[in-house]
Amino acid sequence: MNLKKIKGINYKTGSQKAINFISKIWSLIFVIVLIAFFSSRGVNFFSIKGLQNVLIAATLISLVAIGETFVVISGGIDISVSYVLGLIATCGGIIMREFYSAGLNQSFVLVIGIISILILSLIPGFINGIIITKLKVPPFIATLGVMGIAQGGAYLLNNGMPVIGLPPLAGQIGNSYILYYVSGKGIKFFNQHASFETKSAIGIFPVTVLIVLIVILISGYILSKTKFGQHTYAIGGNINASRFLGVPVDNHLIKIYMISSFMCGIAAISYIIRFSMASPNAGEPLLINSIGAIFIGGASMSGGYGSISGTIIGAIIIALLQTGLVSMAVSPFWQYLTVGCIIIIAVFFDQLKYKLFNN
Questions:
Q1: For 155-179, what is each residue's pLDDT tens digit?
Q2: Cβ distance 38 to 327 under 8 Å?
Q3: Which end of the chain has fewer surrounding CB within 10 Å, N or C?
Q4: pTM for the full model?
């Protein structure tokens, strides 16, 4: 149940107040601590380029985690996201490569590729939803099976090799900026591409970050302001009560898992235009990071609680760890250890708060 929506709670002790307060703000405090720490220890971390790298590192994590947030709030889990992303990216990359090699216009190829990715991305989520709602398979097992299918399919499509030979325009768009600073002229709009970034023109706001910002605004509105969002929280809080109240639970859950895979599609587009290639293992590191971002951001394991803003804070924390460790010349493998510890801390606060308010 969403504690934010409960009115008239009488906290019994000061401990309850303290735990509730800490559980709400600890991740934000942790962001400030990480920025301060890496700024003092890392090389060029606290700079336009350094902070920009943090935002870019958070893009793929955020996109996948936003879709996963809907699933977690509804009381489920989707562990297929990593290889669903890889499968969709590989499909889209092959389509773009074949159309481009046929001599078609680059812009047309990109449009066809993006539309294809978005349409294809709905299929894995639909399959997940059907298996979970109609066959009554637990979400973990259902999405584990779909993950295996997606992994095999992604590797078979291009013999396990990355898809290259995509239109150069893809990379130009993915590495361009909405805003950039020109020495002596101030802020300008629409840098052509990353190579234009010189001492006289410095990119500030990447296109890939704009994509994430648009998704954040739309998904945040859906969760907080629409009936769809209300039903999502209700199902996660008490699925049986939701059925009794007339919520179309099965259809709603199918849509939620389709949203999760659709976000993988948007992440696949972001990956392709950023790296000018598609890889079957493009989403492999994103499973633990995306789920970690959700729980770090305050979502509950039992469902019914969470927010897009909290998830984004969690994604930024993970991106800060990634870029901060690099700026300190520390092995990036430490990132996994650190993220694992933070997830445990986040879940500890969630469970502690649950026990305090349900005793």
A1: 999 998 999 999 999 999 998 888 7
A2: yes
A3: C
A4: 0.88
